[in-house]
Amino acid sequence: MAASIHGQWSSRWAFILAATGSAVGLGNIWRFPYMVGENGGGAFVLVYLVCVAVIGIPIMMAEVLLGRRGRMSPIQTMGALARIEGTSPSWSLIGWMGMLAGFLILSYYSVIAGWTVAYVFRSASGGLDLITKDGAGAMFGALVSDPEKLLAWHTIFMVMTVIVSARGVQHGLEKAVRFLMPALFILLLVLVGYAMNAGDFARGVEFMFHADFSKITAGAVLDAMGQAFFSLSLGMGAIMMYGSYLPQDSSISTTTATIALADTAVAVLAGLAIFPIVFAFGLEVNAGPSLIFQTLPIAFGQMPGGAFFGTLFFVLLVFAAWTSAISLLEPAVAWLVEKRGWTRIMAAAWAGIVAWALGIVTLLSFSSWDFSFHFFGSQKSNGLFTIFEILTNNIMLPLGGILIAVFAGWKMASAHTREELAIGNDFGYALWVTLTRFVAPALVFLIFLNLFGVLDWLLG
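and the corresponding C-alpha cells:
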C-alpha cells in the first residue's frame, strides 16, 4: 500500500528508535526493578525473557504488520483490513479499544510523569541531601496530596508531549526520539557505571542473574508474562500507529526483534543501576512501587555526588516517560486528522487538552477524590486513578493483545501476512503462525484470568 498520509519514518532505524521509545517507559525503569525485587530476582528475569520471546515478539510483529498493511490510524486500519479480508466490520473495535486505552493511560501517565519532573528539580536543588526515610516519605506524600502542584507538573509534561506530536512524524516524533533514545541509553550506562563504583555491584548482579527457581511461584510466572506484555506497549494502538509509518522495504521480524532486545536491555540496565545502590545502603529490595520515589532518594541523599547522579536518574525517567507519552497521543491525533480533516497542530492540541482534563481526575484521586474499594477480594485506594489503571492495564490491553493475535493469525489470508512479514524461510513463518495463533493468545488469556483472581479460585 501507499505511504501513510501522516508521513513515514525516514529509515528503519528511525522506526526502531520510535517504537523502542514507545515501549521504554516508566514500566521498564520504575516497574521492572520492583517486580524483580518482589519476585525473587534472577529466576524472574529469566522467565521474563522467555515471555518476551514467546508472547511479546509475535504479538508485536502482528501489530506492526496490521499497522503497515492499513497505513492509517488503528480504527481506520482495522476497519479497512476487515473489509479486505472479508470478515466482520466489528474487528474495528480493536482500533477503538486500543486508542481509548492509550488515551486513558496517557491521562494518568502524564500525572505520574509529572512526579518525575518534580523530582528532577528536587534533586538538582539539593532537596534530597541527607534525607531520611521519614523525610523521603513526607516529601513524596506532600507532593501527591497537593493538587495545585500536581496540576502544574502534569500541565508542563502534557505541553511537552503535545509540542512534539504537533510537529509531525519526521519533524516531531522522529527528531525527538533521535535525541531522547540515545540520551536515555547513555544516561543509563552512566548510572550503571556509578552503581559499579558507589554500590554493591557484585551483589546486585548476583541478585538479578542468579536463578533460584525455588523462589518462583505460579503467580511470579504470570507476573513475568504480564510485565513482558505491558512493557512492550502492546494492545494500546501505539505500535500499530508507528507501524503504519514503517517503509515497505523494512523487515518487520528483524526490526521487532531489535525493539524487544532494546526494550529488555533498558529494563535490565535499570535493575543494574538500582539494585547495587539499594543493597549498598541496606534498603528494602522488595519495597514495591515506592522503590523509585521513596527508597532511592534516601540512597542518593547519602552517597557522594548523589545530588548530581540523582538528578541524572530522574532526567532519565522523564525521557523514558516522554517517549512513551508521545506514542500514546499519536493514534488519537492521527484519527482526528483523518476523520475531522483537522490540521495536525489542532488535532494534537485538542487531544492533549482532553487527556490533560482527564488527568485532573487522576491527580484529585490522590487527595480530595480519594476513596477505597474492593476489587476481587483486595482493597484498593486512590479511587478513580486505580479504576482507570485496572480498566486499561488489567482489561483492555490483554484483551486487545488477544484480538490482535487472533485477527492476524486466523482472519488474515496467509498470502497477506507472508507478504508483509517477508520472512525468508518457511520455518520462520510457521513458527510465527504457531506462536500467534496458539501460544501467545493462550498465555495472555492466563494473564487475563490471573488479574481477576480466576486462577486462584480455580486452583484453590
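(Above: one complete record from the training split.) The chain has a mean pLDDT of 87.
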